[in-house]
C-alpha cells in the first residue's frame, strides 16, 4: 500500500524533536529516523511506520495533535518557507495546492471555495494512512496556518475519514471548532475572509527565489 508515494525527509526532524522534548527513548524509531536525511524523499509507508513506533513509546490519545503542534517551517523543507514568503493566506494556499507534493505526496489535495467558506480536503484514492498519520498532518497544517497569520483564527470545522475516537474533546480543544469523523474526505473548512489576511514576515524576493528552486 502507498507504493510510489512519498513525504519529505525534513519531517524526520519533527519526530526527532518530539522524541527529544518528551524524553522518549524509542530506539527503533530513532534508528530508522537516522536513515532519512532532510533532503531525502521518504516513502509514505515508512512515515506511517515511524509514527506507529512513536505511538508505541507514547500511547496517549490524540498523539498526532501533540506531534503536529510542534511543527516548524523547517520541517516542511522549501514548502514551509514558501508559505511564509507569500503576501496573503489565499496566496499561500494556492502555493500549497501547487507544491504540496514536495512535503506530503499522499492522497491528492482539493481546494474548494463556496458560500460556506474555503475547504481543503484529501480523499482516500490511494488508501487510508490511518488516524495517527491523518491527525498529525492536519494538526501540522493548522499549526503552520496559525503561524502565517498576524491574527490566528480557528477553522469552522474539521472532518476526518476515520472512525470516531472515544473522546472528541482533545480534537475540539486543539482545532477550536467542531470536529467529526466517518466522512468521505478529510476536510478543513474556514471562513473565506481568511483569504485576504496578510502573511506575517512576508518576503516577495524570497518567494521568487524559492519558486525557482
List keywords for this structure.
single chain; 213 residues; alpha+beta; five-stranded mixed β-sheet; three-stranded antiparallel β-sheet; 9 helices; 8 strands; 14% strand; globular
Structure description:
This protein is of the alpha+beta class and 213 residues long. It contains 9 helices and 8 strands. Strands 4-5-8-6-7 form a 5-stranded mixed β-sheet. It has a 3-stranded antiparallel β-sheet with strand order 2-1-3. It starts with 5 loop residues before the first strand and ends with a helix.
Poorly predicted residue ranges = none
Terminal Cα span:
31 Å
Q: Kindly report the spatial arrangement of strands forming the biggest sheet.
A: 4-5-8-6-7
Give, in order, the helices and strands.
Answer: EHHEHHHHEEEHEHEEH
Which helices and strands occur, and which strands form pairs?
Blueprint: E1 6-8, H1 11-21, H2 27-33, E2 41-43, H3 44-57, H4 63-68, H5 78-84, H6 89-99, E3 104-105, E4 109-114, E5 117-122, H7 131-148, E6 157-159, H8 169-175, E7 179-180, E8 186-190, H9 204-212
Parallel strand pairs: 6-7
Antiparallel strand pairs: 1-2, 1-3, 4-5, 5-8, 6-8
In a few lines, what is going on in this structure?
The chain is of the alpha+beta class and 213 residues long.
